[in-house]
Amino acid sequence: MATGKASDLTLYNDQFIGGYVETVQQNTNLFNGASQGAIRLINELHGGDYDKETFFDLTASLITRRDTTSVSAATDLAITSDEFVGVKLNRKIGPVGQTLDAWRKISKDEKIMSFIIGQQSAKATAQEMLDRALAALEAKLQSVTALYHNATDGTIASTDLSTGLQKAGDSSNDVLIWVMHSKPYWDLVTNQITNAIYRANGVKIMEGVPATLGRPVLVTDSASLLEADGVSSGVDAYSTLGLKAGAVTIKESEPSRTVLDLVTGLENIVYRLQGEYAYNLSLRGCEWDVANGAANPSNAAVATASNWDTQVASNKLLPGVIIRSR
Hints:
By secondary structure, this protein is an alpha+beta fold. The protein has one domain (34-53, 81-184, 214-325). 23% of the residues lie in helices and 32% in strands. The protein is built from 7 helices and 13 strands. Strands 4, 5, 6, 7, 8 and 13 form a 6-stranded mixed β-sheet that branches. A hairpin with a 6-residue loop joins β9 (248-263) and β10 (270-283). The radius of gyration is 27 Å and the shape is globular. The model has no long low-confidence stretch (mean pLDDT 89).
């Protein structure tokens, strides 16, 4: 009696769709507590293209010498006010379309598309918000000479962190956190190893982290922290930000809306997904220049320093400090 074996049969390999969905791989966990409150993400519904907050200016010559021999009239000082202004950025998701036939061919319900795009857009939305926030911070801080340390003569070193903090003067204790690209982060680790650090920060290196003058570090490979050929041809520049509380605020200012729709009238029926949302972006101590930057600005406009006007009397009230290195 002949018994059939596997080798007697023609075998077809199974192909299947797993639950893995490729998403953005940049570290986007920098909001709120993760950044010591330097990068704030809040939900606050807000109409219009801008959000404005009034504040009172510093009253000049508030304290002066009093002449005890005089009874002449004293001149009143006026209290003046100004405003901080943030700008609304309108965003869309998709549209993403796929024929129903395509889903049938892989034996899947078309509604799986909302699951896939949902996973991808959640991460992509956080990345886009973070990148715009860092781009605005980088541009503004680099434009303020008093807050900018140029270390592009080499890779970042411990002394550069110290020099960067010096830019904040006696408000250096207000710098809560470093935000940097992974390139300068590992340059810092390597530099500390190379320069014979076997003391307090030698312990840090053995733990796989650099000594950073008592401030935590958040590492994110955001394109906003990298300028290709920023030093010279073939030599990129990297920005390291030392941020204070409320350095940047992102307000989710409109309800997000996602629509799933069947599109007919084509050769094949299409399943389409499209979404919309908006958020307001504001920098500590700054006013969005409505005349120059305008409403719903482009990414380039957000990253233009002249569109973020300083509204405070002291640079110490701005978002922090910046270090540029190779």
